[in-house]
Amino acid sequence: MNDYDPRFGDAFYTDSFHEHIDYDDLLKNIVCPTVFLKSKTEFGSEGIQNCALTDDDVGKNESLIPDFSVIRFDCGHGIHIEKRQTF
């Protein structure tokens, strides 16, 4: 981990790496067909979200992106590892 910048981890956990981005505006302007791969929504023992987006987040994205579809996987965050054959 010689090249790891600990500031990245800090920004990830404090949510500051994207604090100035208007995601509603960004998502509304996506014009290409979009496929989202959704794993199970899980939270760790300390309440930390173990998935990219919750089901509510995916629903919001679906309402903002005109041509949006979801493929759901019954697994954790590592879809490409846990569901290798399907992925």
Report what the structure shows.
With 87 residues, this protein is of the alpha+beta class. The protein has one domain (22-82). It has helices at 6-14, 23-28, 55-64, 79-82; strands at 34-38, 68-72. The protein has a two-stranded parallel ribbon with strand order 1-2. Helix 3 (55-64) links the parallel strand 1 (34-38) and strand 2 (68-72). It starts with 5 loop residues before the first helix and ends in a 5-residue tail after the last helix. The model has no long low-confidence stretch (mean pLDDT 88).
Chain-wise SSE layout:
Blueprint: H1 6-14, H2 23-28, E1 34-38, H3 55-64, E2 68-72, H4 79-82
Parallel strand pairs: 1-2
What are its keywords?
87 residues; 11% strand; alpha+beta
Using the alpha-carbon principal axes, give the shape: globular
Q: Return Rg in Å.
A: 15 Å
Q: Determine the number of helices (DSSP H or I, runs of at least 4 residues).
A: 4
- Secondary-structure-based class equals alpha+beta
Spatial gap, N to C terminus: 28 Å
Largest sheet: 2 strands, parallel
Helix residue percentage: 25-40%
Query: What is the average of the pLDDT values?
Result: 88
Main-sheet strand order equals 1-2
What's the number of structural domains? 1
Order of helices and strands: HHEHEH
Number of strands: 2
User: Can you tell me the residue ranges where pLDDT is under 50 for at least 5 consecutive residues?
Assistant: none
Q: Could you give a quick summary of the protein structure above?
A:
With about 90 residues, this protein is of the alpha+beta class. It has one domain (about 20-80). It has four helices and two strands.
